[in-house]
Automatic annotation (TrEMBL):
Signal peptide: none annotated. InterPro entries: ASHA1/2-like_C (IPR013538), START-like_dom_sf (IPR023393). Transmembrane segments: none annotated. This is SRPBCC family protein.
Length: 139
């Protein structure tokens, strides 16, 4: 099986990195923004933000027809700069936080899974990131 290229999604939040970091990592916040589609939601979130710590976000269709746990273990946590984790299936993702002039640039690159088209995966992760930006900027 060939290894697919990593996928990158990016966005800039009109907020300082401390606010962005907090909203990215606080379970009550995660439950508000972690969705790619208005028909979905995140009814529960757990986050132990430290190397070796685990996170688990329950993602479900609002009509109850489907759901899954998005979870992983942190490999690297550098406050206000970087988070790297390995998902349950062995894929890895890294998010970089870069503050400039009171705004925070986020860039996440991740290993795609093999079931869905890479463009579909990129669109889904980008949609979640865009939701995050809207959420933080409205707080």
């Amino acid at each position: 099986m060939t290894q697919l290229s990593k996928i990158t999604v990016e966005a800039t939040v009109n907020a300082p990195v401390a606010k962005v970091w907090e909203a990215w990592n606080t379970p009550s916040d995660i439950m508000q923004w972690n969705t790619a589609d208005p028909n979905w939601h995140t009814p529960s979130s757990e986050n132990d933000l430290r190397v070796g710590g685990k996170f688990k976000n329950r993602m479900e269709a609002k009509d109850g027809s489907f759901g899954f746990d998005f979870e992983g273990i942190y490999d690297s946590v550098i406050p206000h700069q970087e988070i790297t984790y390995t998902m349950g299936d062995g894929r890895q993702a890294t998010t970089l936080f870069t503050e400039k002039d009171g705004k925070t640039h986020l860039a996440t690159n991740f290993d795609p899974e093999t079931e869905n088209d890479p463009e579909f995966q990129k669109a889904g992760w980008q949609s979640i990131l865009n939701n995050f930006v809207k959420y933080v900027e409205s707080k």
